[in-house]
Each structure stands twice: as C-alpha cells, then as structure tokens.
Protein: D-lactate dehydrogenase (cytochrome)
Amino acid sequence: MDDKADEADNTEAISELRASLGDDAISTDDEDLRVHGYSEWSSINIDQLPVAVAYPKSTEEVSKIATVCYRYKIPMIPYSGGSSLEANFSAPYGGMSIDFAFMDNILALHEEDMDIVVQPSVPWMGLNEEIKGSGLFFPVDPGPSAKIGGMVGTSCSGTNAVRYGTMKDWVINLTVVLADGTVVKTRRRPRKTAAGYNLTGLFIGSEGTLGIVTEITLKLAVIPQETSVAVVTFPTIRDAAAAASKVLRKGVPVAAMEIMDDVQMRVINKTGNTDREWKEMPTMFFKFSGTKAGVQENIKLVKSIAKAHKGGDFIFASDADEQKKLWSARKEALWSMLALREEGHDVWSTDVAVPISRLPDIIEISKKEMDDLGLFASILGHVGDGNFHESILYNAKDPKERAAVEKCIHDMVDRAIEMEGTCTGEHGIGLGKKGSLVKELGLDTIGVMKSIKSALDPHWLLNPGKIMDFPG
Amino acid sequence: MDDKADEADNTEAISELRASLGDDAISTDDEDLRVHGYSEWSSINIDQLPVAVAYPKSTEEVSKIATVCYRYKIPMIPYSGGSSLEANFSAPYGGMSIDFAFMDNILALHEEDMDIVVQPSVPWMGLNEEIKGSGLFFPVDPGPSAKIGGMVGTSCSGTNAVRYGTMKDWVINLTVVLADGTVVKTRRRPRKTAAGYNLTGLFIGSEGTLGIVTEITLKLAVIPQETSVAVVTFPTIRDAAAAASKVLRKGVPVAAMEIMDDVQMRVINKTGNTDREWKEMPTMFFKFSGTKAGVQENIKLVKSIAKAHKGGDFIFASDADEQKKLWSARKEALWSMLALREEGHDVWSTDVAVPISRLPDIIEISKKEMDDLGLFASILGHVGDGNFHESILYNAKDPKERAAVEKCIHDMVDRAIEMEGTCTGEHGIGLGKKGSLVKELGLDTIGVMKSIKSALDPHWLLNPGKIMDFPG
Structure:
C-alpha cells in the first residue's frame, strides 16, 4: 500500500467512473459513507470511512470499477447485508465501498438440478420465501438480514449447520471479479467435481480479500416433510452441553440444536415474542425434521437423553405457528439483546468454536467470567458444531469497562485456541480478530495465506486490513 | 523447470538423503521405480519413471527430503495407495517419488470429538475396521485400495457421497510440508471455522502440486443403527436415471444410489461374487441407512418411485451377509472388469459429472457411442451426484482401436462440459485430463490456479505436469 491513491487519484477515479457508469453509480454523500463504514453491532469501529460508494448493476460494471480502482490503487470493499460483526466491511484505508444493492436478482432457478443462480444482494430469507413453491430451500441460516454475497465472504453458517453444514458446502460456483477487473468463473454447474484447485472453497471465507464475488450458484435442499421444535431446561449450562454431546454421539439426526443461557431466556421473556413465559434457566432448543415417523423417533431419543442429563420441562411447540415463533425468538437473539441496550451503550458479540468434547468446559468457565463483569451478557450456541456466541452490553466510552470486556472476550478466545479450537466458527476475522488468527495458526500458515493474497492481489487493494496485515 | 536437476544433482541429493535418513530410506531399485511410475489401471502411462523412491517415517523426514529436493530442484511426487486412474502419481519429469508406506499409523482417535488423526498411508477400509468398536466410521468410500493421503490429493468420493458428501467435507485439518520443507498445519481441531483462508479445502484436490500432506485429521460419523440394500432393474438406462432423479427431488435420504448397466451386471454374474444370477439389464443399487422405522419408510418411497419409472424385480438383500456381498460386487466393479481383460489388453476408466437433470441424456448418448465401439465396455454411476464412470477394455497397442476409444472418451468429456458439467467428478485431472480442464474452466480461471501454484511452489517442483502445465 506504499503507492496508495491520494485525494487527487480518488477524485479522478470517481469522475472517470461517473462518466462511464452514470452519475448515480458513485455516491460520496456523507451519510452514505457512514452507513458503509460503521456498524452498530460490530465488535470494533474505526473513524476512517470509505471515500465513495459504488452501486454497480452488473458483473461488467463491477469489472469496470475494479479496472479503474486498480489503475489508481484505490482499495475496494464489497458490501451487501452489512450485518457482519467483526468490522468485515469497514474501510481502514478509505477506498471504494462496492454496494450490491442493485444486484439483488435471482438469475435462474434450476428445479430439477436443485440449484439456483443469484446476485450478491439476494437475502437468504427472501430467497427461501421466493422459491418455497418449488419444495426446495437454501439451508444456511445466519442472522436474518444477511445476504448471499456477505455469507460467501464470511463463510457463515447458522442453526442448521449441524444438519446441513456451512456455506462452503452449499456453493457450486462463483463468478468473481479479480483485483485488476478480470472476470473468472470458478466452476461450471456440476454438484460434485475433482477438477483442479477448489477455487470456490478458497474465495468462500476470504472476506472479499481475494476477489469480488458477483454471481453465486447455490445448491438447494428439499424442504422436509415434517418439522418439529422442542425445548428443554437444564439445571446448569454444563448439563445442557453434555446432553448435546450425547445426542451427537448417538447419531440422532437433529435438524438443529441450540443452547441459550438463563440471561438469553430472560431476553426472550422481556421482548415478549412468544406467548409463553419461559423459565430463566439454561435451555436447549431442538429442531427435528424428516418424515413423520422419523421425527417422532428422534424426539423420543432426544427426550430420553435429556432426561438422563437432568433435563426437565420438555416442551413441544403446539403448532406450526408456535414453532415459528419459538425459532424466530432464537434467530433474533442478537436483535433482542440490542433492543434492551441502554441509550448510547454498545454490544460486543463474538463467537468461537472448539472440539465438541471441550464445549461444556469452555462454556462453563466463560459464562462465569462473563457473569463476573456485572454487565448484561448472554451465551448462546450452535452446540452441535462446538460453536458458541457471547453477547455483552456495555459502555464503550468507559475505558475501564471497555478494558474489562475486552479482557473477558480475549480470554475466551485464547481459551478456545488452547483447546485446539478456533477464534471464530462463523463470523470471520475482519478487523477484530487478526491477532487471534496469528495465535491460532502461527506465522508459517499465515505466510501461506499471505502468499496467496499477494499472488491474486499484488497491491493488496481488495478489502485491505482484513484477515491479515500487509507484509513487512 | 529451466534449472531442473541433472543426473549429478540427483546422485548428490540421493547420497545426501541416505546419509541423513539411512541407506534404506531411498530406493533406486528398478522394479521399485516401475511400481511408482506405472499403473495398470491408469488411462495413460508414460515411459519416464521417477529416479528414486523415498520412504520417510515422519513429517520431519518428509521436511528433510523436501529441503534437499528443493535445493537441487528435484521434482517431488507423493505416493500412497497408487490406485488413482489419471496417472496422478506418474513422473513425467523424473524426480523423487515419496512413498508413505511407513507412515500408516492412526495417531489419535478422539471418540468424543468424533475425529481421528492419521498418516497418509492409512487405508480407509482398514481405518473403518480398526475403529468399528467406537461406533464411528469414516464415510468416504472410493476404490477399496485407496489410502487417505491419495484421497486428499484427488478430492475423491464414492458411493456414500450422495448422503455424506466428498473428501473436502470430511477433513478438519492437514499437516503439509511445503516445497521448501516448511511444515504448516492448516487448522487446529474445531469441526467448524471461519478463520482465514480455507487452506484445508485448497490442498484437498490439489493432487500434491501445492504441498505434501503428512498428517490428516478426519471427521467421523456415527454408524447407522440399521442398513439395508435393494436392487431394481429398469428396461433402459434412461428410466433408471430418471427414477434416480425423482428420488433426489422427493428428498428421500438414500445412503447411496448407484446405477450399473447391463454389461456391468454381466460382469457381476461372470465373477460370481454373489450367489444370485442377476438379470443383465440396467440396474439400480440403493443403500438405506438410519433407524429401523426410517429405513422402512425410505424403502417404501423408493419402491413406489421405481415402479412409476418401469422399475421391476425389486429385490432386498435377505441378510447382512448378502448386503455386504451385493455392495462389494458394486465396489469391486473396476477390479472385476480387469479380471475379464484379455492378456496384454488395457482398461480405460474415467468419470465425468453433470447437473442432475442432464444425467439421463448424457448416459444414454454415451452408452450408445460406447456400444458402437464393439468392445467390452460398461457404465456405472453415482447418480445421486450426477457422476458416472465408463470402463472400456481395449488393446492399446492397436493404434486404430486406441484412437477410437480415445475419441469416444473425449466426446463424452466434451459433452459433459457442454452440459455445464465437469471433466471429472472424483478421479482428478492428473496427466490425463489437462486439456479438458482448460476447455472446462478457460484460461483466466486456470490463470488463477497457476498464480496460486507459482506462489506456493515457485519452481514447480511439486508433482509437476499434473493438473496444469508450466506457464509459458
């Protein structure tokens, strides 16, 4: 980044792009810049904002934007849902935010092949609404406002991961604009391939640092015949985690298995999204899906395992509507937390993942340390993957409070790494976790990543400052 | 490869390595070289052999070998099961074959985490035999003699892929020796991660061209309670493929779904591996697994779909023993074909994959063209993934016959690519399919692969000549 664009370069590039793509294609409106450089639910925010926001309408326009930015050495930062949590779309070196707002179309649905071709700003929830008549759905379910482009970038997952896997299991191919504007397609459209390097899998999770994804072919799954939701309380979070572990080891094919602590249950009660008053205790949410008989069989198995681990109050959603309410309460956990935040206060929400057997240990210790902060803080987790989240409400303007929260989070992350886990199971590294990534993988492995980065983006223009810092 | 090692370099490197690792560590025995450079079931063989075979006993020894080879610019070719089909371990530029024969240990089984750490020469079948007491198994099932190292290299799969996915879905982390001898580990041991680039997924399927894998952590699955096998005949291969497509679209969770043509059924009859005399007609093999009730339910569904597609003779394996025999007949299809080969004749066995809806079309046309050759030739396929194999017995020494077979195969591969498919679903590119890969992906996408290759292996020493040719 030695020869980074200066103000004159930025101005020239912007006017060149406006001439080529139309005046509306590039915004330098202050509020627009703020929206694209700041996030109220990010663990970290910085003062620097992008210098402009581009609104391309096609892969060709993205290619033009990249060609110009490449020539002027202007950083390029892809933006879709804006719901990431580690400042993944922040602009520490200024540059051009590339917002896919106008690239939100489903381009083709191939029902018989069970796949769909979409642009980056298609929201996963909208997608599923759109195609439900086909009997198919896209099973990766991160935060409700996430869009496919960002989901590719962070290699996200969600509650369905225990059954269906993560983003990298559901992408068939990507159309990618490289740093210099070259357009490549990683694959054709076979569901399975062993032909050459797995570029699709490399771009997924690279947080826009290797290329700008403009088109995505996703695998779809068949909507299960029958779904059911059950909720069980446990005396301690350790008991709940131990029960989860047993369910996995017994091979019960749960569709999802989520843990929420007493605080999170209080949040559900407070936001009043369900008609029920929940016990404010460690609670497991199970989702079952399959055929009628299969679902009944699995519920029976889970019930007996839960009982053996001191589980009580085994409750079923009484109907489809309650199922939906229950599950959406779980899905909106972060939003519900945010709603309870005091004026001017912040949220720090982060995730780690560990080998499954270590989950009871890390949740127990981390929960205790978090409670010791004396703040409003909760744990919830995708226990089937050894993955859990902490969310802490705090006053970032109070240096002492901020330091305490920071220490608590960092200790949890270090603990996950010591347990042979990872500093993030599904949120990505962004700006926030670069130090942890070095601790997790070591400099030689990071060195391999840097070699790949430099090979594909020699001037480090693509989302610079994320995942890794520049060499030297 | 301008500054490739000459004979003197090879001699010096070999004596240096013998001094460091022991005389037995490096073999230059003629028969040993032949075994490591030639394969009787490869689609292509070349005259060049490796100049030596190294037998490392640890990751440290592999690192030493790489350090010396890197210094003398000697090609390095990893070798484990030797069962690949596209000359993936051939030695077109000579060099050092690195045989993992003495690295065949299970290093750790973590039952509670449902993972296992192994060395490259652990065979997948032996692995499953070894751990069956734990109630866990490794579900990726390629040819019976395949070993984990090679399975990582080719990103293989097998009959279980329709239910469990392919190799890249089952590897947690890899220990890799880079071209210059540096040892890296791609990940720690969480089942799920979003931390940095997916190096694990990049090394899988790179056929040893980016690094030498010396240690692999694999996910394990729980052995299903109940398994069943059923066999159905169809009047035409198109009917069979159409039934398979319907089974997928209905979301029936079959454990495997394999198609075999009339010729392949004749092979089973001839090799007499099962007690039954099979109808020599297009036949589908289904595997079901899960709970007792679930299996029964799925069998019922498949039976009704098969019937609607003119399926007849719905036969169940009567007991566990027949299940095993039936399934092993399917697994040993290639070996059975080889057993029927005339003295001095060859086999060309290759695979492609297409979007599922195109499978009936491509199988029908390809089968017709293959029959027109007038040779002994069969089709079998993992229809659940849109992936199928052709195996042709022929006389490679007859130039006219060889040309006819080559044209038939190339036409099938081109057809798969035109149908938005891939030139290989699970065998990899090796030496044999480099031209097809260019047709499939285009030069810009291959360019991205070459950039990555050059970044990690600047002298193109790792398995040179595979997947892609040197730049320029």
Notes: The radius of gyration of chain A is 22 Å.
